[in-house]
Write a structure and sequence with these properties.
Four Helix Bundle (Hemerythrin (Met), subunit A); single chain
């Protein structure tokens, strides 16, 4: 049963990260230029932004809930080494920065376009870049965790086996 829970949590975490970061890439590289080139009315762009923001909010909620579970689960499963703690701390800081940038974007979106700060145009690119960094830090954490398990000879304990 613990195997199923851990698998579900890890999969949800990875999917939420992939949807947010992949969606950001598509939004920046495909949707925004298409709206500009197609001369879509402002209402269309605003609706696309609202829908994407709603998706991002779901992803953030999933990432926070699953991330908290993963931190406690991983730290209680094995003795974390210094490298794991450093990478985990970096990932948490990057994630908090991402959440802050997403909040900033949501707040600025409520303002009239002419009243938005210059940071408004840079924030989506920062979100994408930091999202990739967070994803890579997550992969690093997974590899460090698996190496720690392998060193302890406890690979079956990861999934609650005996």
């Amino acid at each position: 049963m613990l195997f199923v829970l851990r698998s579900l949590v890890y999969t949800t975490h990875a999917l939420a990260a992939g949807v947010w970061i992949g969606g950001s890439l598509v939004y920046l590289v495909v949707i925004t230029p298409a709206l500009r080139l197609g001369k879509a009315p402002p209402e269309v762009g605003a609706q696309v932004a609202r829908l994407f923001r709603a998706l991002v909010n779901v992803c953030i909620g999933a990432l926070v809930v699953t991330g908290v579970f993963l931190v406690f689960d991983r730290l209680s499963t094995v003795t974390a080494g210094t490298a794991y703690i450093v990478v985990l701390t970096l990932k948490i800081l990057v994630a908090l920065t991402l959440f802050g940038l997403a909040l900033y974007q949501a707040q600025e979106a409520r303002r009239l376009a002419r009243n938005r700060g210059s940071f408004w145009r840079l924030a989506p690119r920062l979100i994408l870049a930091l999202g990739v960094v967070a994803f890579l830090l997550g992969v690093t954490l997974m590899l460090l965790f698996e190496a720690q398990l392998g060193a302890l000879g406890a690979s079956l304990n990861l999934f609650g086996g005996g």
